[in-house]
Write a structure and sequence with these properties.
The protein has about 425 residues and is an alpha/beta fold. Helices cover about 40% and strands about 15% of the residues. The chain has 2 domains: about 5-235 and about 410-425, Glycogen Phosphorylase B (Rossmann fold), CATH 3.40.50; about 245-405, Rossmann fold. The strands form 3 sheets. The chain has an 8-stranded parallel β-sheet, with helices on both faces. It is globular and about 60 Å long.
Length: about 425
């Protein structure tokens, strides 16, 4: 189980390790260091960092998380030590997500976005103070794209800083996000004596020392225009230690590979209506299906022989048993679809999320059918997409090809080696 952690300075310990792979093979002395990892958001914003933390811990480093209260249950399940920093507001985040998902103009509506985000400003001073204090006890600070204060900690303390983007699009996009960052983060930066940044909610949050992009070169190569300290690692995955129930195993083995439906933690105005659309599409396509989410309990769906409801099951374990995956297309879920080698049906929920980019990129590669925006989802449309995934051999072969390439990468290993090299360059090893 995870544990709330009391920080105190500790001496680092030296070890000898071998660095291999695309970085070349050589022996080097590496100090085993304590690293503070921070981010905000839902499960998809944390799971890649659990994979990275596992890789760091496997090489005797000491990863510790700084998290909001809303992430405590995830950290306790992960087993990593953590410290809770200034609270965020889960209900406010849910409200914002629902607004983004249902408002067609969210991509451009910067005024409304600033208004919705403004309440979060009240957490900045306390969160910055706590993150600064925690950073004084570690050798390296690692931050995800949803934490805008990590770069400020680096700039004000000099602690070595690694940023991690979960896509090479630089996070969520659009004029609304750019303007919201300028109007909400930059006034706080000016107040504490720092210059403003361009796009502080996205690429402006990147580290000036090492900015990692946790996605695969097989989907899109590293842009030639990137600065040298921007590096693409491959997706972050951890092999799940998951033990499925006998009932789940029985369902998976009882017939053809099922459609897996998972829309992450996206809120919906009418979950009942959305579930009805999905169930009609499954019936029209004659599909067995495993449905994750919608607060369903096993046995609560009609015709239990063809439909099975699950709570959370690790995607990197589950998707390989699917015939196809119906998903919103967030970064973590999209990566798991690509790795599985099965076709995807992406249902992006808003122009403002990175879902729109993953949907486009996956379709261009040829491993998904054309994306179906959530407001255009209908039983016949989804049924046709399921049948295409089932019958289109070219689509299935492209998916298999991409899955093989993704599985050949070790993004967390590449990231760990880059972090160790950066640490060495600052005299931490």
């Amino acid at each position: 189980m995870g544990a709330r952690f009391s920080f105190s300075p500790i001496p680092v310990r030296a070890a000898r390790t071998s660095q291999r792979g695309s970085f070349g093979a050589k022996q080097m002395d590496i100090e085993l260091v304590r690293l503070l990892i921070t981010n905000f958001g839902t499960r998809g914003d944390f799971e890649p960092f659990f994979a990275l933390a596992g890789e760091l811990a496997a090489h005797q480093h000491e990863p510790i998380f700084a998290i909001p209260e809303s992430a405590v249950s995830m950290l306790e399940q992960s087993g990593f030590p953590y410290v809770v920093i200034a609270a965020d507001d889960p209900e406010l985040r849910k409200k914002i997500n629902l607004s983004w998902s249902t408002q067609a103009d969210a991509y451009e509506a910067s005024g409304r976005l600033v208004e919705e985000f403004s309440a979060l400003q009240s957490y900045f001073p306390v969160a910055l103070k706590e993150l600064t204090e925690l950073s004084s006890t570690v050798s390296v600070l690692i931050s995800g794209p949803a934490q805008p204060l990590a770069r400020i900690v680096h700039e004000t303390t000099g602690v070595p800083f690694v940023s991690v983007q979960l896509s090479n699009f630089g996070g969520n996009g659009g004029p609304a996000i750019c303007e919201a960052g300028d109007r909400l983060v930059n006034p706080f930066r000016r107040k504490i004596g720092l210059p403003p940044l361009k796009d502080p909610f996205t690429t402006g949050a990147n580290s000036p020392q090492l900015a990692l992009y946790a996605m695969s070169r097989h989907l899109r190569p590293r842009p030639a225009t990137w600065p040298a300290h921007y590096q693409m690692t491959g997706f972050f995955f951890a092999e799940p230690t998951y033990h499925p129930s006998p009932e789940l195993i029985d369902f998976l083995q009882a017939g053809p590979a099922p459609v897996v439906v998972t829309l992450g933690s996206m809120p919906h105005e009418s979950p009942e209506r959305l579930l009805s659309i999905i169930l009609q599409a499954l019936a029209l396509s004659g599909s067995r299906a495993l449905i994750q989410g919608f607060d369903l309990m096993p046995g609560s769906l009609p015709d239990n022989k063809a439909l099975y409801a699950v709570e959370y099951v690790p995607h990197s374990w589950l998707f390989r048993f699917a015939g196809c995956v119906v998903t919103h297309g967030g970064a973590g879920t999209a990566a798991a679809v690509f790795r599985s080698g099965v076709p995807g049906i992406f249902v992006p929920h808003s122009e403002i999320y990175d879902q729109r980019y993953w949907s486009q990129l996956a379709h261009e590669y040829g491993c998904t059918v054309p994306p179906i925006p959530i407001h255009k989802l209908a039983p016949t449309t989804l049924a046709d997409a399921i049948l295409q995934c089932r019958n289109d051999n070219m689509l299935r072969n492209k998916s298999l090809d991409l899955g093989s390439k993704i599985r050949s990468e070790r993004g967390v290993g590449a990231a760990r080696q880059m972090i160790e090299r950066m640490s060495a360059s600052f005299g931490l090893s």
